[in-house]
Amino acid sequence: MRRLKIILVSLVVLLAAGLGFFFFVLPARVERAMNGVMNPPPYTASDRAKALHESLTIADLHADPLLWGRDLLARGTRGQVDIPRLSEGNVALQVFAVVSKSPRGQNIERTDGDTDNITLLAIGQRWPLSAIFSLKQRALYQAARLNDMAARSDGHFVVVRSKRDLRRFLERRKVEPGLVAGVLAIEGAHVLEGDPANVDVLFDAGFRMMSPSHFFDSEMGGSAHGVEKGGLTDKGREMVRRMEEKGMILDLAHASAAVIDDALAVSKRPVVISHTGVKGTCDNNRNLSDDQLRSLAAKGGLVGIGYWETAICGKDATAVARAIRHTAGVAGIDHVALGSDFDGAVTTPFDTTGLVQVTDALLASGLGDADTGKAMGGNAIRFLLENLPD
């Protein structure tokens, strides 16, 4: 009996240790491994770039930190973005995207949606039971977390839902430098769970941007990395119609070529591609062709250039600037923006405090102060002021 008790106690201790590791240690280790920074801060730049950078209104169209369970009001020791680091990097506005499903082995060539890595991560981070079993509830949970952070920030961080909200924030920031605004977005319309009517639910929760697909084909449309890579489905067209009625912005990041063509044909409002690269500087299946850039610009759209290697075929700010310059040369300077994909399971050359290096690289490439300001955030702010709901 004594030996049996020792065995049972040992098993209980091992189980408790294992559960403690799974719930309180492993999620942070996973994030640290997946969201790397090649060059840690502090970051250097020319005096000219520093001065210009401090004068700009900087905006980033895509980052995924809500997936990782951190309190973004606290300065992180892992990952690439949070509110204090946004403020230090002089970023006025960050689009916070929600990831709800991520298949095992996802890649830019062919990915099916039969598996999901997020379920274990959600369990490990102790998400509500409803968010374990429902993709829509995962999105709503992450939105609630961001809104809670705004409520606890003493006004330092606000979630923007309308043109009026954004105008009010920009006026405040003129006299209170360092304030940060967020916009909620959804990466992949599989969160609709097959029902376009759920656009209304997500809009009411504060989401203002959504893409039809992520790494795999959805019931709304094909992914550039999916199996079928088809166009917008009937449900997808209904989704676009409902989004436009609400004033939600259609994001074509990760969309198949057929979805991009269909969306540009049926949409009545400008669209974005929030985070991408361009084939003109980095030719692969993830990135946009010159023809796609021109079509998007003709629709009044906006392209966010990412910082990870698959997007830019490089490992520094110079590669980011090269992709921005190419996009501006093809689509026009008014149609390019930043779309970092920070904390999106990618390794980047710098965290968000290092954006001055992009400013520096753009200036070094010969771009003038005014056009640099457009690419670093001016275009994104203008686009949101024109296209967010009233």
Automatic annotation (TrEMBL):
Keywords from the UniProt entry: Dipeptidase, Hydrolase, Protease
Alphabetical list of InterPro entries matching this protein: Metal_Hydrolase (IPR032466), Pept_M19 (IPR008257)
Record-given protein name: Membrane dipeptidase
Source organism (scientific name): Mesorhizobium retamae
Pfam families the UniProt entry points to: Peptidase_M19
SUPFAM superfamilies membership: Metallo-dependent hydrolases
Molecular function terms from GO: dipeptidase activity
Enzyme Commission number: 3.4.13.-
